[in-house]
């Protein structure tokens, strides 16, 4: 059965969709007679507009409650995704709302089933944090609740998103290394695991092309697990395969950057005198590393705030086309990178 939309009501009454939205939202711009006609037609057509929540409908005895879904992987990254959650909670408290966090287990993913504690009727909207497989996210979208995805998107999933300017960030990070004199730059990150990683890789390749540097596939490790043993083995194979290793690397995230530095130090390379390393995401790995890692950082507070604002907007504009908000990444230069002319390479 087709879901009734505001456009269907507008078509039946021969008025604009905007007039229908104003009438159902009890806003100015339309007459009381039009509001009554629109509401009557909506009820006759089975369009449920009375249950639509807003962030500001709270009373001392009632709070709007929103759900956030995240995998074990995302929830374990407290200095990145944990910070986004913290800022979402802080922003929502301004409106007197509550946030419930649901762990998406491997069993939920394999069986494509929602966590047992979740009940659709208890929530006015959803946040989806980071990567979960497409069928599970579609399961959430099929609930037809206002939904915002954070730090993840997919061309097959139609919903609002808050993201990083990954391609631009990858370009700027690579350009930074090029401006330091590096002409042989490697890339490390599993581009098939996350669209964000793939976009960072695309930005890296564009920067190489724009600066007339060769795009060498042999120097791109793009399909690898973020595990020390796996990465060490891959890097050892690369060292045996190419005559000259890159003088600089761009890593898709900070965990990869940390492991990369550990590997090269373990076989006698100096960072940054022999190899410079730049990564994405300003997490604990970037400051625990010795030396600390130059990184492309995202304003996590702003990401959390924008996610809440976008969900609030969606509650007020349920029929509007979906939006994608992209936040910039900025470079934090640390000790893991240096200019070629200064290092004697």
From TrEMBL:
Cross-referenced SMART domains: HTH_LACI (SM00354)
Name the keywords, alphabetized.
Answer: DNA-binding, Repressor, Transcription, Transcription regulation
Which InterPro entries does the protein's record reference?
HTH_LacI, LacI/GalR-like_sensor, Lambda_DNA-bd_dom_sf, Peripla_BP_I
Q: Where is the HTH lacI-type domain?
A: 4-58
Q: Give a yes or no for keyword Iron in this entry.
A: no
Question: What are the GO MF terms of this UniProt record?
Answer: DNA-binding transcription factor activity; transcription cis-regulatory region binding
Q: Identify the PROSITE patterns for this entry.
A: HTH_LACI_2
Pfam families associated with the record: LacI, Peripla_BP_3
The entry's protein name is LacI family DNA-binding transcriptional regulator
């Amino acid at each position: 059965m087709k879901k009734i939309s505001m456009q269907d009501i507008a078509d039946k009454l021969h008025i604009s969709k905007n007039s229908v939205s104003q009438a159902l939202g009890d806003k100015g711009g339309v007459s009381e007679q039009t509001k009554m006609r629109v509401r009557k037609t909506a009820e006759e057509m089975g369009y449920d507009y009375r249950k639509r929540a807003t962030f500001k409908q709270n009373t001392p005895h009632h709070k709007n409650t929103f759900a956030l879904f995240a995998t074990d992987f995302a929830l374990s990254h407290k200095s990145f995704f944990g910070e986004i959650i913290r800022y979402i909670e802080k922003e929502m408290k301004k409106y007197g709302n509550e946030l419930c966090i649901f762990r998406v287990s491997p069993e939920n993913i394999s069986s494509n089933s929602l966590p047992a504690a979740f009940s659709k009727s208890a929530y006015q909207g959803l946040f989806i944090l980071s990567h979960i497989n497409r069928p599970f996210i579609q399961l959430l979208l099929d609930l037809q609740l206002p939904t915002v995805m954070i730090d993840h998107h997919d061309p097959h999933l139609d919903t609002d998103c808050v993201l990083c300017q990954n391609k631009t960030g990858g370009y700027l990070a690579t350009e930074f290394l090029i401006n330091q004199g590096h002409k042989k730059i490697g890339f490390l990150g599993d581009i098939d695991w996350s669209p964000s990683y793939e976009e960072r890789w695309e930005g890296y390749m564009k920067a190489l092309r724009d600066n007339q540097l060769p795009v060498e596939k042999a120097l791109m490790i793009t399909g690898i697990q973020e595990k020390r043993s796996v990465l060490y083995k891959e890097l050892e194979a690369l060292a045996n395969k190419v005559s000259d290793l890159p003088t600089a690397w761009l890593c898709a995230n900070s965990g990869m950057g940390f492991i990369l530095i550990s590997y090269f130090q373990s076989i006698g390379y100096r960072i940054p005198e022999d190899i410079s390393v730049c990564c994405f995401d300003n997490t604990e790995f970037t400051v625990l590393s010795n030396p600390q890692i130059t990184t492309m950082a995202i304003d996590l507070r702003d990401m959390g705030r924008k996610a809440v604002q976008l969900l609030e907007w969606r509650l007020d504009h349920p029929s509007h086309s979906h939006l994608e908000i992209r936040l910039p990444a900025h470079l934090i230069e640390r000790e893991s990178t240096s200019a070629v002319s200064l290092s004697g390479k």
